[in-house]
Amino acid sequence: MKTDPHFLFSTFFIFILFVASVQDIVKRRVSDKLWFVAIATYIIIFFYYFFHEKPNFEILKNQYNILKIILFFAVFAILFIIFQIMFRLKMAGGADLKCFLLIFLFNTNEPLYFPITFFTSLIITLIYPILIFLYNILFQFEYVLKKPIFSFLGIRKNIFNDLIECESKCERERENEIESESENKIESKSKSENKIRNKNKNYFLLEKVDFENGKIVSNFFGFDIFSENEQKYRKDLISFLEKNKSYKIQWITPKIPFMLSILGGYAVSYLIHYEQNLNFIFFYFLMN
Question: What is the model's pTM?
């Protein structure tokens, strides 16, 4: 069987996605180093292919004609807009969008590779709201009837202790910053920031308190109350909840590790495109 550079790289990229999924689940952050490793590996594999396999340049010329190049940039522009919308709606994070763009760029010669990966990832993601709804049916049924849409998006949780914990960490962070600046220990400062950032809670709030009227305002897309931008609201909310204990339990939605869905979607596309290659490898090892 002739060496297929796309098959080799796609196999390696599954490993990259697996590592990214583990980071997304454990740390809620995916290192950019993974994408640089993927790009470097892609370049190495294809440089080796061009210099050692001696590809047919006439075939390559037909594969990458002017019309296809124009179509490529048009699709890329559309995808960029879609990804921006997904990012604004908190449907995906920065690492997820980078990953999708790389999958698209790495598989320009396979027109169905990216669409299969993208839409399969979205289908897999639909499992999460179903599981959340089942949880609410079993353990929080009285709230399902009150807010049926929220019952697919999140669960009820006492957020007061998490707010207190976050504020105490922020106070320690500010103390460490002052100490680091006075002692010029930039390295210890960055470590402290990363340590606190990694301990942020893995959920968004689906409700926001209107302090003037004492009412709960729904926010279907959720907002990250543990971010630095929400520090003032977080302090005001703690003061409000100390006086109004009935508001401590609110609707929250988990920060879904979307990278896991991308891994599943990519694996499906991989199996569809390289079934013959995988069968060949399977029977080769079986016969030997």
Answer: 0.72
Domain residue ranges in the chain? 5-127+257-287
Write down the residue that tokens 């907002």 correspond to. Answer: 223
Alpha carbon 246 to its chain centroid, in Å, reads 33
Lowest mean pLDDT among 67-81, 87-101, 136-150, 184-198: 184-198
Contact 202, 255 (CB under 8 A): yes
| Helix pair angle (94-106, 258-273), 10° resolution | 10
pLDDT per residue over 158-208, tens digit each? 888 888 888 887 777 767 766 666 555 444 444 444 444 444 577 888 888
